[in-house]
Amino acid sequence: MQGTRTNVRWVWIGILAAMALFVGLWLHKQLTPHTPDIEEMQATVLTQPRLLKPFVLIQGNGKLFNNQSLMGHWTFLFFGYTHCPDICPTTMAILNQVYNKLEQQKQSLPQIVLVSVDPNRDTPRKLQEYVSYFNPAFIGATGSRKEIDNLTQQLGIAYQIVIPKGKTLKTLGDNYLVDHSGAIILIDPQAQMHAIFTDSSDPERIAQEFVAIKELASS
Amino acid sequence: MRKILASLLGLFLIIAMPNVLADEVASQVVKVSNAYVRAMPPSQRTTASYMTLVNQGKSDHQLIAAISPAALQVQLHKTVSQNGVMTMIQQPTIDLPVGQTFNFSPGGYHIMLIGLTAPLTVGEKIPVYLIFNDGSHEQVTVPVTAATK
Predict the structure, then answer these.
(1) Helix and strand counts by DSSP (H, E) for chain A
(2) Rounded mean pLDDT, A89-109
(3) Mapping DSSP to helix (H, G, I), strand (E, B) and coil, where does residue A9 land?
(4) A140: pLDDT strictly greater than 80
(5) Hey, which residues 39-68 in chain A have their CB within 8 Å of chain B?
(6) What 8-state DSSP symbol labels residue A157?
(7) Which of B45, B81, B149 has its CB closest to that of A182?
(8) Cβ burial A24-38 (10 Å sphere, 16+ → b, else e)
């Protein structure tokens, strides 16, 4: 009789232990950040990272922004213009959230750069004032139309000044919009084009995928 | 006689009722919530405002324009992606069907403020007037929020 009772007790202990193990495993799975595989990423990761040909732009503080500026750290490149009322400030705000998330996770921080596709209106200084408004660590870079095109063409970034029918760039003066690619380009520490985020609406996802891309590249 | 009068009254009611219903004023039945306008650096003269509109009336309405003393021009726009290129298309009107919710939100429909008359500072409020196709208008008090929001 005594022996049966002990056995029952052991069965109960066994069941409880198994339940605790399951709960523990489930919690572990819930709490461990999920690392996405390349296949399930929204970002397009280049199978062969592409080295960028020489380009020279200028930053608001007068420093050059060239291939050398991309060496030794990851860089997010976004293309836009300061007169952009909707998508540029929306993306800059999202990049700021990505940056803050990475900072909270104590990740090594990427360089975040807005390249202007509107050199007529965006002086380097004005551009820097604009990006700093979103995050003081952000960089604004612009240059001659030729140098901007040199970079956009290498990265597959399209843009175009919108000229309504019956108008010319001259008659529009300073009052025009610019269509431009909404993609965010990820450059690796070897100054190579590494990945493209075509959907830039979810900061959580961008941060998560950036960390995964970075880990994959270093493994 | 009484019968004739009664049928006349009935006829009147049948004809008049839909008109009474149709004559609701858009500005009184279109409810606006979550309105905000994004602050920009002082040198920046263009920004966008976002808000939610709900038509709580009994007939369809249309938003045909917006104006604000805070900007020289106000336009209704929609951002769309055409093969990855973001382009903005000006909207002459915004349909507000009965019972439907319409969202102006970042990366989609927005109320573009062009040529700000003064820089917008966070915490300040600007008036934006919504103008409907029945000629009525509604004043919305729009708070200025941080660009990083």
Answers:
(1) 6, 10
(2) 96
(3) helix
(4) yes
(5) none
(6) -
(7) B81
(8) eeeeeeeeeeeebee
- Tell me: ipTM over 0.90: no
| Chain A residues lying within 8 Å of B87, measured CB to CB | 162, 179
Residue among B45, B47, B86 whose CB faces A182 most closely: B86
Q: What is the mean pLDDT of residues A142-165?
A: 95
CA distance A73 to chain B (A): 24
Nearest to B37 by CA among B70, B73, B63: B70
pLDDT digits (tens, 9 = 90+) for B45-96: 999 999 999 999 999 999 999 999 999 999 999 999 998 899 999 999 999 9
> What DSSP designation does B125 have?
E
| Backbone CA torsion sign across B11, B14, B19, B25 | positive
The amino acid at residue B46 is T
Per-residue pLDDT, A106: 95
Helix (H) / strand (E) containing B67: strand B61-67
Task: Tell me how far apart the alpha carbons of residues A140 and A113 are, in angstroms, rounded to a whole number.
Answer: 6
CA-nearest residue of chain A to B88? Answer: A179
